[in-house]
Amino acid sequence: MTSLRALEQLGRTRLSPNFFLRDFLHSEISQVESIPNIPANPELLIEAGRGLCERILEPIQAKLGKVSIRSGYRSTTINRVGNEKNYNCATNEKNYAGHIWDVKDERGHYGATACVIVNSFVDYYEKTGDWTVLAWCIHDLIQDYRYIIFYPKLAAFNINWYSGPTDEKTISSQVVNPHTGKKGILTRKGWTNFAGDHSEYYSEWLRSVC
User: Fold this and answer.
1) For residues 134 and 155, is the Cβ–Cβ distance under 8 A?
2) pTM of the full predicted structure?
3) Quick one: pLDDT at residue 9?
């Protein structure tokens, strides 16, 4: 895909009622390094993106309000450069079915990751620093995520939709958990705190949103 017309048409692809593919193609690495962020397999890219938007982002936005896209798709070239230059990108192999939407992973499954911000949560997070409120809310709301990783600025988080089994479903953070004083895993499938209702952690905040 080398023509402007073809790339424009690809960007107009509607992945779900509120999200278009162009929302996920912006890349600071692409801009700084002057490397086009163009997919090698547009069909797989679209299929993975629709899974992410329909199964994860639309339900979040419907319940919690606007979701802003911080980053989404990376081509293999963009991701490789990001890894080699220490731009906080994992290796290509680790990002297949993650930020690299258009390449299947070693198990033959595809998927899509986006880094997003829930706008309605930003003020609460900046006052409290408690990202776990949003983490538990999304955990109860969304059944189809594979992993969620929270970051310090604006409570942004990576969230992944995956076409294969989600046996390793995990929520983790690079931000200290204010309740434990530690970073790392909040919950994962099989842990005692994984199942059940967690509304005690987020009901007060959610009432202020709804």
Assistant:
1) yes
2) 0.95
3) 87
Summarize pLDDT for 65-101 with one digit per residue, the tens. 999 999 999 999 999 999 999 999 999 999 999 999 9
Rounded-to-integer distance, Cα 59 and Cα 95, Å: 24
* pLDDT at residue 136, rounded to an integer: 98
135 token code pair: 């983490």
How many helices (DSSP H) and strands (DSSP E) are in the chain?
A: 9, 8
Nearest to 146 by CA among 115, 197, 111: 111
Is residue 76 a contact partner of residue 100, using CB atoms and an 8 Å limit? yes
Q: Which of 149, 141, 139, 142 is nearest to 99 (CA)?
A: 149
Burial status of residue 150 (CB atoms within 10 A of its CB: 0-12, 13-18, 19 or more):
buried
Q: What are phi and psi of 162, to 5 degrees?
A: -140, 140
Please report, for residues 33, 38, 82, 111, the alpha-carbon distance to residue 28 in angstroms, rounded to integers and kept in the order given. Answer: 8, 14, 10, 22
Contact status, residue 117 vs residue 67, Cβ threshold 8 Å: yes
